[in-house]
Specification:
InterPro entries: AB_hydrolase_fold (IPR029058), Peptidase_S10 (IPR001563). It is built from 13 helices and twelve strands. The protein is of the alpha/beta class. The chain has two domains: 252 residues, Rossmann fold (3-Layer(aba) Sandwich); 53 residues, no CATH class. A hairpin with a 2-residue loop joins strand 10 and strand 11. The protein is globular. The two termini are 19 Å apart.
């Protein structure tokens, strides 16, 4: 069996989702039964046939502190960032394995999606450096896998415009105007023509980004807080009341509604061992955490880890306008690794499930056809098979 850590992280505008998102909606062992909630009972669960726990012994970790049921005794403990929270994960892993030494021999992988995909290579780098310093494998680290990963370095944002053009969201004229006036920087317009065309493009992109079903995304949509930072005075972010019930016909959204009642049930909290007086109320997307994005780019971490010999799987749902696969391809190519197995389709049930390419230094990139921002959510079978084949060491 493999040990793997899935790091529950925030996505955009400091909206932090926790590992219950992974457990119930993405790659975890259970999911909610598709039935209306009438109150009085706990929402029912059923097994996920494509759970990644069938492939690995997985630790689902709430990070940064303040997400999910995690907490700090001192309010200052919530004031973390990419670097400090990643070091906390490394410290946690070492302590956990000290307490559970039977797992030390298991091949160990770090995994995460979206913004977690930005810090996973940093965590992996810290672990690899610790192993080298100790001169013996305190963790049997083999590599990492990241899905639709944020990379920073403006690549994620700047790739949205060409992606939207390729998907027919914006016209040739708008795309050409953006190219001419923005000079490749679509995130921070420096002139009025660029500002104007980006306003039009953003309006058109919102038609795709904002789903027909309310709350259908796993977290709030991107905000415009340029500081990427919130005040400690906003620490008390409890809802106080249950969320508004979405239409049952939008079951993807309805599952998030069910999660509120499941997680805040006294029997659930007791079964999970939640200490009284720590987390007053569980909410799916915590906002207001004083989190600092102090890792401008993770690209160097990817280079450092893979050139040390660790395996890497980078995968992207090809229908994700938030972290487009084209931007991910661009930073992978910037590593200048030679191609070992050129671009080709990978198959499932006799048809293409996506496309893949393998580079030197054990780096594999794969797309999942029709996959959204978190492919295990809307393409669970394809994501499961991809992970299964990669963890086994064979071709996709």
């Amino acid at each position: 069996m493999y040990s793997q850590v899935a790091i529950g992280r925030g996505d955009w505008d400091n909206g932090v989702h926790d590992e219950q998102c992974h457990v119930f909606f993405f790659s975890g062992p259970v999911m909610f039964v598709a039935e209306r909630y009438s109150g009085g009972t706990v929402p029912r669960l059923e097994y996920n046939p494509y759970s990644w726990t069938k492939l690995a012994s997985i630790l689902f970790v709430d990070s940064p502190v303040g997400s999910g049921f995690s907490y700090a005794h001192d309010p200052k403990g919530y004031d973390v960032g990419d670097i400090s929270s990643s070091m906390q994960i490394v410290k946690f892993l070492r302590k956990w394995l000290d307490d559970h030494p039977k797992y030390l021999s298991n091949p160990f992988y770090i995994g995460g999606d979206s913004y977690a995909g930005k810090v996973v290579p940093l965590i992996t780098q810290y672990l690899s450096e610790g192993i080298e310093e100790m001169h013996h494998p305190i963790i049997n680290l083999k590599g990492y896998l990241v899905g639709n990963p944020s990379a920073g370095d403006k690549i994620d944002v700047n790739s949205r415009v060409p992606y939207s053009h390729s998907f027919g969201v914006i016209s040739d004229q708008l795309y050409e105007a953006a190219l001419a006036n923005c000079k490749g920087d679509y995130e921070n317009p420096t002139n009025k023509p660029c500002t104007d065309v980006m306003q039009t493009i953003n309006n058109l992109m919102s038609e795709v980004l904002e789903p027909a079903c309310p709350f259908d995304w796993p977290w709030p949509m991107p905000g415009r807080d340029a500081s990427n930072r919130k005040s400690l005075t906003e620490e008390h972010y409890w809802l106080g009341d249950p969320p508004v019930e979405p239409p049952f016909s939008c079951f993807a959204a309805y599952r998030y509604y069910l999660s509120y009642f499941w997680a805040n049930d006294n029997a659930t909290r007791a079964a999970l061992g939640i200490k009284e007086g720590t987390v007053t109320e569980w909410i799916r997307c915590a906002t207001g955490l004083p989190y600092t994005r102090d890792l401008p780019s993770s690209i160097e971490c990817h280079f450092n880890v893979t050139t040390r010999g660790y395996r890497a799987l980078v995968y992207s749902g090809d229908h994700d306008p938030i972290v487009p696969f084209s931007g991910t391809q661009a930073w992978i190519r910037s590593l200048n690794f030679s191609i070992v197995d050129d671009w080709r389709a990978w198959h499932l049930d006799g048809q293409a499930a996506g496309f893949t390419i393998k580079y030197a230094n054990n780096l594999t990139f794969a797309t999942i056809k029709g996959g959204c921002h978190i492919p295990p959510e809307n393409r669970p079978k394809e994501s499961f098979i991809m992970a299964k084949r990669w963890l086994a060491g064979g071709p996709l």
